[in-house]
Structures are given as C-alpha cells and as structure tokens.
C-alpha cells in the first residue's frame, strides 16, 4: 500500500472486521482466504500457498460472502442501511 499511489487513502482493516461489516450489511460470510504469503524473492515457494491460505499469513485476503437466498439488500437511505466505514485508533 505504501508504493501504490492509488492506495494512498486506503485504510487497512482485518479480515474479522471485514466479515463483521459483511454481516452488518446483510451478507453471510462464507470463507476467508489469505493470499501472497511469499514475497517475489521466494516465488518458487508460491506453489505452497494454496495449502496455507487458511492461515492469516498473507499480504492480502479475500472474504467471500453471500446474500441470503431470497433476501433483499438494504436500499440506500433506508433505516437499516449499514454504513461501511472503518475507524482506526
């Protein structure tokens, strides 16, 4: 995030915070995968990353979430709309 200008205003949040935000938005978290465990210098070890993606070691993560079957997402401006902002101390 430090070297990419387009990430200049990005705020890092943990996978558990992201899952909570998904739940608050009416989504059901399904899985979390951690990615990019090994830096470029150890690129030959990246074949092992698929075995390590459940361990919080990677530089990035993906949270897969699903809208409940038949469920509706909150409409913008509704009283149950969840604001997805992160505050860091």
Architecture overview:
The chain contains 2 helices and 2 strands; from the N terminus they run αβαβ. It has a two-stranded antiparallel sheet with strand order 1-2. It has helices spanning 15-24, 49-52; strands spanning 28-35, 60-66. The chain has a domain at 5-66. It has 89 residues and is of the alpha+beta class. Mean pLDDT is 78; it is low at 78-89.
Summarize the helices and strands and which ones pair or pack.
Layout: H1 15-24, E1 28-35, H2 49-52, E2 60-66
Antiparallel strand pairs: 1-2
Helix/strand-derived category reads alpha+beta
> Residue ranges: pLDDT <50 for 5 or more in a row?
78-89
- List the total number of helices: 2
Strand order of the largest sheet: 1-2
Mean pLDDT: 78
Distance between the first and last residues' Cα: 19 Å
- Helix and strand run: HEHE
Based on CA atoms alone, the radius of gyration comes out at 16 Å
Coarse shape: flat
Helix content: 10-25%
Quick synopsis:
With about 90 residues, this protein is of the alpha+beta class. About 15% of the residues lie in helices and about 15% in strands. It has a domain at about 5-65.
Characteristics:
89 residues; 2 strands; flat
